Amino acid sequence: MKKTIYSLDPWRQLLLAANRRYLEFISTIEEDKAGTDKLNKISQPVEENDCNYRGFNFFDPQDEKLFESLVSGEFNISGFQNKDLRRRLSDRNSGQISRTMKRLRVHGLIKKGWPPTSTTSPHSANRSSPSA
């Protein structure tokens, strides 16, 4: 379909149908408990090897920027490294990014690459986790 002023009506019908299908899909979702449970789990502190790792606050601008960087889709195929996040989160140094990646790993949001490499990828089980 061409993108001209003369094709506005067909575009309107197409987009209304897409919106209608989307609203029908959303109306079939009944239980939000699973999403709430995941959000609560991510927000709670975790202890591993006598070290405490704080939870994520989705209203904190730094955590919001972190999650926006992770869900951008850029890292879905080949994963990411510390330097990739450092480019996007320019206000943090290498050590801060390393600690943030450890927090993400402990909370189960990312996992190390396989075979063992220096890349990390978003955990596929948590792609449906709410992002800021």
Structural summary, described in words:
- This protein has 132 residues and is mainly alpha-helical.
- Helices cover 47% and strands 9% of the residues.
- A hairpin with a 2-residue loop joins strand 1 (46-48) and strand 2 (51-53).
- Helix 4 (82-88) crosses helix 5 (94-106).
- The radius of gyration is 19 Å and the shape is extended.
Helix and strand arrangement:
Elements: H1 8-28, H2 33-43, E1 46-48, E2 51-53, H3 61-70, H4 82-88, H5 94-106, E3 110-112, E4 120-122
What is the global morphology? extended
- State the order of secondary-structure elements, H for helix, E for strand: HHEEHHHEE
Q: Kindly report how far apart the N and C termini lie.
A: 35 Å
Describe the sheet with the most strands.
Answer: 2 strands, antiparallel
CATH architecture heading of the largest domain: Orthogonal Bundle
CATH fold category name of the largest domain? Arc Repressor Mutant, subunit A
Q: What structural class do helix, strand and pairing data support? A: mainly alpha
Number of strands: 4
> How much beta, percentage-wise?
5-15%
The CATH class assignment of the largest domain is Mainly Alpha
Tell me the helix content: 40-55%
What does the average pLDDT come to? 78
Number of helices: 5
